[in-house]
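User: Fold both of these, please.

Assistant: Here is the first one.
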Amino acid sequence: MSHIVVIRSYKPGDEINCKELVKAGIMSSLNSTFFGIVFKELTFQLMILFAAIMFIFFGLPLTVCVLVIPLVIFLVYVGTYIAFTAKTMEVSEEVSNVPRIYMSNAFSCFWVAEAFEPYLMTHDPKNVQYNLMTEQQFRNSDIDISSQVKKIVGTVALCKSHRLDKGAWIKRLYVHEQYRRKGIASCLVNVAVQFAIDEGYSCANLVASEYTEAGRELCLKKGFELQQMYHKPILGSLITVLMYELTYQIKPGEDDYVPPVYSRSMLNK
């Protein structure tokens, strides 16, 4: 058994690898978010508006006014990049404080997915089948890893919600791009949900953007339901991204709030 992924709790020494992973995870959706925003109706309206202002009020030739199109696209990219960079800095700061935020009490936790591979990795991880196991299963297996290297390829965290009574937030769900579609994200979500159940939470919520459809589909298959949708500003109020808040109801009836029911077609809009 030469290719293994172990889901375990965060421990000292993981900080640097976790920072690199979450940074790559956040930035990996930069392009899809950018293109999604560019092709929105509002972006086209901005292009037409700016071109009309230049033509009507400044009397510029139409050929010059057309140049507003790449200008708007450039501004959208800059705004999106700045927003993603700010998010990366925010999450990196949080990862630096994982021991205090997530590991200092019994009601929150931070997990990593750690891959064990041969020193001489001759195959692309995308083409390798990994055996997934929990930390306890790994300890009981008595597998010899003396000739293998380890690498953190996924993260997830859970903490108490300050908005929902007896509710929890699942956060920082990231999987390295080369290790996706191998069941790692599914195992990370399972561990977080099971922790919420064991600690007596009534529900576990998470937030995903409109450009992370694979993640939303994974959570829906696991029994999560849509609780609400809202727009997150990217470039002020002009450019926003639709966010989905999903909830996994553990103890129905304990919270006064009853989430609305949405169809799958609405989730994919």
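And the second sequence with its predicted structure:
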Amino acid sequence: MQDLSLIHKPITGLFPYPKTQEEWEPYRLSQEQVDFFHEQGYLSGIKLLDENQINILKKELEEVADPKHPFHHLFHEFHSNESDDPNTVLFHSLGHWRISKAFHDVIWNPAFVMAASQLLDNQKVRFWHDQLFCKPAHHGGVVAWHQDYSYWTRTIKMQHLTCWCGLDDATTENGCLHYIPGSHKWGLLEKPALAGKMDGLMEFMTEEQKAAFKPVAIELKAGYGTFHHPLMVHGSYENRSPRSRRAFVLNVFADGTISNTDDELLKGVPVIAKGRKMEGQFFPLLN
């Protein structure tokens, strides 16, 4: 086995990649969906996976989540529990696309690639990084209210996009994602601790923003995804239900995004000098 980040195309038949414009068409979002995204800051209910794909990803998630996996060193981050509360658990990792064939290939899932390109104004799309967020039954931890770009200012300009996809049904009971519609128009806020107290972001908000803080639960069946703007305020509550809540996240940016730091962008990734284009082994072009 090798580091799969060296391969910039699908390596299994799990997500057949369209070869013609006609083959892309079934994945195209409507103009109404694109308009809703730009107005509200998110678009949910997009089918990304079938049952077979879900089952294979679940199996490979179980394998890569084992700290004894022989390629564990390829993770950029790995937290068996990132929660500040010892009574709750939030598994969180970055870099599993380098280890798992299925999680490598889901980056080239045409349903994801087409939507991402459209929501980024039909630009070419580059992979940024992946994430796993898993909340076990009964004692799953929170993901604090935050904006993704507050953790990504080391890359400019802001032309990023996040896709969250569940491998289990996500409900209010087991800690589904919540959005604050329209909050992507608030500008960049300070960043809280991601697995800290749920409402840490509140101290950085204006009274007007607090008054508009009306969470909307994004309940989704397994295999369905939700996309959101890099400034969308979002988070998820704890899981006290008898069902797990496993999900993966794909983060991308438009081609032409550049490094805004001379420091390491991700652990284990060679430095891209400030002002240089984000490209190469770890940031493949997807379309």
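Residues 29-259 form a domain with the Jelly Rolls fold (CATH 2.60.120.620).
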